Amino acid sequence: MKHLLICLSLLSTCLQGVLGNHDSRLAELSTAIQRTAEYDAARIKEIDQLRQSLQVAGLSLPDLFARHEKIYEAYKIFNYDSAYSYAIRLVRIARELKDSRYQVAAQMKLSFILLSTGLYKETHDSLVSLARQPIPDSLKGNYYALWGRYCYDLAGYANDNYHSVDYDIQGNQYLDSALNWYHPGSFDHTYYSGLKYFKQNKRKEAASFFEQLMTRADLTHHQFALVASTLSGIYQQNADMDKAIDLLAQATIADIKSCTKETVAIFHLAELLYKKGDLRHAAMCIESAIANAEFYGARQRKVQASSILPLIESERINGMEKQRSLLIKYAVVVTILVLALVALTWVILRQVKKLKLAQQALKEANNAQQAANAQLQESNRRLAEVNEKLEEANKIKEEYIGYFFNMDSEYYNKIDKIKGTIEQKLQEKRYEDIRFFLNKIDARKEKDELLLSFDQIFLKLFPHFVQEVNALLRPEEKITLREGELLNTDLRIFALMRMGVADPEKIASILEYSVKTIYSYKSRIKNKAAVSGEEFEERIMRIKTL
After folding, report:
1. Lower Cβ count inside 10 Å, N or C end of the chain?
2. Cβ burial, residue 268 (10 Å; 0-12/13-18/19+)
């Protein structure tokens, strides 16, 4: 039965990946991608107006720096070449000003744009040059945060278990320094606090900061995209792919509206959609991502695209082959189910054999009792105990053997029906009907029904089991079952022991837990007992049947 539940669970997961539906968020994303040119045109118009402001005669160097800075800010996530050009102009103007504050600010902007396009050596050289200068207090937060992002990007680029770890540790140290200079409650302080916890694999703490930011109404589109994209990484690590996809779709929509071409959200979204089997939307996202990378000039994003795009295209071409492979997997599952039922039958027959051996031992004891007249009273007492155990064993045998043979009959019929239906559908090449037919198999329901049947039969044999177990516990530690619950995991462990299943490995196998977990449950209940642990187990074994 354990194998049956595992196989059905795997089958259900496989079908969900193939037949999953996407919500209206992806339709909204499709509309936003279609309007990309409209958003880009608005950004270009805005930049043209800013560039015209440079034509004013007689501008002072500080004014000239400020106007170039605005143009740089408009370009920095929109187009690398233009942003780099204006960053160089800012560096030159800062040198003419001969003011370290302007020089540091300009060099930081140059470092940012180098990092954004994946020029890691040049970024390092630029940041090292900054380290030789006094950093104004107003820029220290951004300075350390830039170092932190540089280390995190290197960790992502290395993508191994050695260098990436060291880079992430360095990044966390830089973020600690940056947080000392950001105002508590500001976007930067809250975001980088969450990012630091995320990089330390403290997902719960990190999520609280990002979810706090998601509720704020004052975020720009770019800030919202940054938060949503990072938060999606937490949900992805928690295996909640639907929520991760929804957040990445929101982040991508915000990136499009803010004309952000240097972004990872759409790449990750394409990858998740590809893994989920939604090739149409995955292709839409990766094509848009490639267009963004080409427009911006981001080298590392082009590398990302080159690794994902062939997979998506190959998946489209090999769709029919995957269907054939899926049908083979279904056939393997059915075969495993048959083998599982055969193994279950063998276990039952083995238990019957053990009961027969017990009966034979009883007959031998009776013969010995007749020959030992001097010990008649003691032998009678022992015989009464053996008879009582045999009667109890026979009750258990009658109930559970009848139950399992009935279950065998039901599952053989189910397997035969499944096999016949699949063979017919395969002959008729009605593959979608096979998916629909197999999708109706509910592994969770099968498992719940199995446990419920076990509880019902056991309580039929031991109707006062729960009350007698509670009587052995301290008053404040008594077990309280939820509504509709006959036994819980604690009680089932001792119920199996009462039935003679003493091996923790067998108990773990039956209840689908690890042996360590079974020991943990037993120890927890024994610690709640009003008697010693050894006496507790002895008194459990003395609980009598009806």
Report:
1. C
2. buried
Beta bridge partners of 473: 529
- Find the largest Cα–Cα distance for the chain: 129
CA distance 4 to 333: 9
User: ∠ at Cα 228 (20, 199), nearest 5°?
Assistant: 105
Nearest 5 degrees, angle CA 443-CA 445-CA 446? 65
Q: What is the pLDDT of residues 415-438, one digit of tens each?
A: 777 778 888 878 887 777 777 777
Tokens 């773990």, located at residue: 508
| Cβ(22)–Cβ(278) below 8 Å | yes
**DSSP conformation class of 529:** B
What would the two tokens of residue 444 be? 């969770």
- From residue 229, alpha-carbon distances to 47, 162, 168, 210 in Å are 27, 25, 18, 10
Which of helix, strand or coil describes residue 132? coil
Query: Model confidence over 319-339: pLDDT tens digits?
Result: 555 666 666 777 788 788 878
At residue 529, φ and ψ (nearest 5 deg) are -75, 155
Ranges of H-type helices in 318-375: 319-371
Q: What per-residue confidence (pLDDT) applies to 362?
A: 77
- Report phi then psi at 165, rounded to 5: -60, -45
Kindly report, residue by residue over 280-311, the tens digit of the pLDDT.
888 888 888 888 877 776 555 555 555 555 65
Domain residue ranges of the chain, discontinuous segments joined by +: 35-134
- pLDDT band at 79, cuts 50/70/90? confident
Token duo for residue 73: 């800010």
Q: Which two tokens stand for residue 87?
A: 């960053």
Q: What confidence score (pLDDT) does residue 15 get?
A: 39
264: tokens are 């990872």
CB 254 within 8 A of CB 221: yes
Q: What is the 3-state secondary structure (H, E, C) of 140-206?
A: HHHHHHHHHHHHHHHHHHHCCCCHHHHHHHHHHHHHHHHHCCCCCCCHHHHHHHHHHHHHCCCHHHH
Q: Beta partners for 529?
A: 473
Sign of CA dihedral 393, 399, 403, 405: positive
Span 35-134: which CATH code? 1.25.40.10
Q: CA 119, CA 110: separation in Å to the nearest integer? A: 11
